[in-house]
Specification:
Helix 1 (14-24) crosses helix 8 (229-245). The chain has a 7-stranded parallel beta sheet with strand order 3-2-1-4-5-6-10, with helices on both faces. A two-stranded parallel sheet has the order 7-9. The chain has a single domain (5-193, 226-261, 304-320), classed as NAD(P)-binding Rossmann-like Domain (Rossmann fold, 3-Layer(aba) Sandwich), CATH 3.40.50.720. Helix 1 (14-24) links the parallel strand 1 and strand 2 (29-34). It is built from 11 helices and 11 strands. Helix content is 37%, strand content 14%. The chain is α/β, with parallel strands linked by helices. This is RmlD-like substrate binding domain-containing protein. InterPro entries: dTDP_dehydrorham_reduct, NAD(P)-bd_dom_sf, RmlD-like-bd.
Length: 335
């Protein structure tokens, strides 16, 4: 096979950085897209809301595979254009999504639809990163298989599900079934530039805050399955390799799921962080009440993703040990 090329959207974000690095270290030639932090060489300056920008990147680099990554961010942009340009991919925090529904739809649905259409026209495989929040997470239902009918409980999950549908529909319309692939993942952690990049890493801020005499409350109800970005990057590369080599891609599954089996509440993660750093958690109160029925954003209780579809096609679903990674990577703890 000739040179294999991968283009990673959102390559300056928490997941995108690792996916970009993973392809670069795996006998692929990789480039990424970004906007404000693009260097114009390895990270191309691309506004994903602008079809001409996307076309130019695809036509000049000519990737075999595009990995469309989400990009965690805590700020709330004021409009759709600013959101697309500043994030470079998908908005992850459900509360922030509700603050700007139009902007979120522009990213998670419209930009993804355009990217899928352009990839299909060029016979380019597209891996769309989605979320466990496409499922309702009702007690007793998990783990969810990849072919279970989704039923999101919040706007974030709904827009990501609509993005999934848009991607698959574009490839189906083009007669390119099997070249559009959905990969659902849970909450992510790993090497971060700031704690705010990850809904796991950011819990360190909560632990540090209560050391200075303040008090806090942390959810001790919903179960999360934190998964390392390095593992997701490896799986993306393995999927790309598998589907690129396949003679009959249409026979391969279109929806895949990857997750660690390690599970914690947010409070339990805070307990772990405090223990590793030798800090007290007596001022952080565990909230076991679950969802407020009057809250605008309803969060799932347990959205554990089954990895059976990946196993069935021979993809390694092993993951790093959550506790072991944090004990080993103490440099990840930052104020």
């Amino acid at each position: 096979m000739s040179e294999r090329k991968a283009l990673v959207t959102g390559a300056t974000g928490l997941l995108g950085r690792q996916v970009f690095k993973g392809f670069g270290n795996g006998n692929w030639t990789a480039k990424g897209t970004g906007f404000s932090r693009a260097d114009g060489t390895t990270i191309l300056k691309v506004d994903l809301g602008n079809a001409e920008d996307v076309e130019k990147a695809l036509d000049e680099f000519k990737p075999n595979v595009v990995v469309h990554c989400k990009f965690s961010k805590t700020r709330t942009p004021s409009c759709a254009t600013q959101l697309i340009r500043s994030l470079g991919a998908a908005n992850r925090f459900p509360d922030k999504v509700d603050a700007d529904p139009e902007g979120t739809r522009a990213i998670n649905i419209e930009a993804s639809k355009t990217l899928a259409r352009l990839c299909a026209e060029r016979d380019t495989i597209l891996i769309y990163i989605s979320t466990d929040y496409v499922f309702p997470g009702r007690p007793g239902e998990a783990p969810y298989e990849a072919d279970v009918t989704p039923a999101p409980t919040n706007l974030y999950g709904q827009t990501k599900l609509d993005g999934e549908k848009a991607v698959l529909e574009e490839f189906e319309k083009a007669g390119k079934e099997g070249m559009g692939i959905i990969l659902r993942v849970p909450v992510l952690y790993g090497e971060a530039h700031t704690n705010a990049e990850s809904a796991v890493n950011v819990l360190m801020d909560a632990v540090l805050k209560v050391q200075d005499g303040g008090k806090g409350v942390m959810d001790h109800w919903a179960i999360r399955y934190p998964t390392n970005t390095e593992d997701v990057a490896r799986v993306c590369r393995d999927i790309a390799t598998k589907y690129l080599k396949a003679k009959d891609r249409a026979s391969l599954p279109r929806v895949l799921q990857f997750s660690s089996e390690d599970h914690y509440t947010k409070y339990e993660i805070c307990e772990l962080f405090a223990e590793i750093m030798g800090l007290s958690l007596e001022r952080l109160v565990a909230n076991t009440e679950g969802n407020d029925p009057n809250a605008s954003v309803q969060r799932p209780y347990d959205c554990h993703l089954s990895t059976k579809a990946l196993k069935d096609i021979g993809i390694d679903v092993s993951t790093q040990d959550f506790v072991g990674w944090w004990r080993r990577e103490k440099r990840a703890f930052r104020k």
